[in-house]
Amino acid sequence: MSQVGYWYNGKLILGDRIELAINDPGLIYGATTFTTLRVYHHSLSHPLTNWDAHCARLRRSLQVFGWQFPDWERIRHGAEQLLPSFEVLRIVIFPDGREWITGRPLPADLSERQHHGVIAWLAAAPHLRRSLPTYKTGNYLGGWLALQKAQQLGAQEAILVDDQGNWLETSTGNLWGAKDDCWWTPPIDVGILPGVARSQLINWLEQQGLEIRQFPWNQERVQEFDAIAYTNSVMEIIPIHTVLTSDQPFEYRSLSGVLAPLQCLFVESKK
User: Fold this and answer.
1) Is the pLDDT at 255 greater than 70, yes or no?
2) Which of 83, 104, 125 marks a domain boundary?
3) What order do you get walking across the sheet with 33-38 strand by strand?
4) Model confidence over 109-152: pLDDT tens digits?
5) Rounded mean pLDDT of 58-80?
6) What is the rounded distance in angstroms from the CA atom of residue 172 to the CA atom of residue 87?
7) Which domain holds residue 209?
8) pTM here?
9) Helices and strands (DSSP H and E) totals, the chain
10) Are residues 193 and 74 in the same domain?
11) How many structural domains compose the chain?
């Protein structure tokens, strides 16, 4: 990344270090809002890139927090400077409207995860939750801690839960379940992030005439699914074939055609 650098406050900066004031609230409180997007075909206008939805997410957070809006044209220009080098962009906005855009490649094992699925760990401890869960803020400590613990246990993802033990979301995405030709996902009002990919998939499934049910994932429901997966804008659809718990693990079919309707959105749009 040292050759390409990043975009910060209206400038393309070479290197991998950023300079912030020691009293910057983004540094000492995690007072930022961000969105992470995958850029398809090096184009911000590609339907799957969904640039407008990501900008709308940032606007909603800034409006609720009462923060200053950035220069949106400058943000797009900064993103375009990084497009030739990166497939994934992370756009961060500070309370005073400063923008910070970084890029990274897709995960090296993404195809393997998409085809074979992953192991997830059920993060039942109260401290392993995201702060302000319906927004993407710089304070992601709870989710990050859950993911670190999951990886220590040999899993690739963590599933966060509420006080009643209901499954909410993963540390990096939204949950989906398949059962009886119907698609299930936890509702936003239980305290989860309204993911951009989640919204895309809901619209896609509705267009295909498929049934979607947004209900809490209690202990009985999670045992009835034929298959489960998590989604986000970078990873698309990642099947979960095993969930590690403090008792017996849950086993699910990872692919076997069950998740095909979800995957079709991304397959068709890449052509």
Assistant:
1) no
2) 104
3) 11-13, 6-8, 99-104, 88-93, 33-38
4) 999 999 999 999 999 998 999 989 999 999 999 999 999 999 99
5) 98
6) 18
7) 113-269
8) 0.94
9) 8, 14
10) no
11) 2
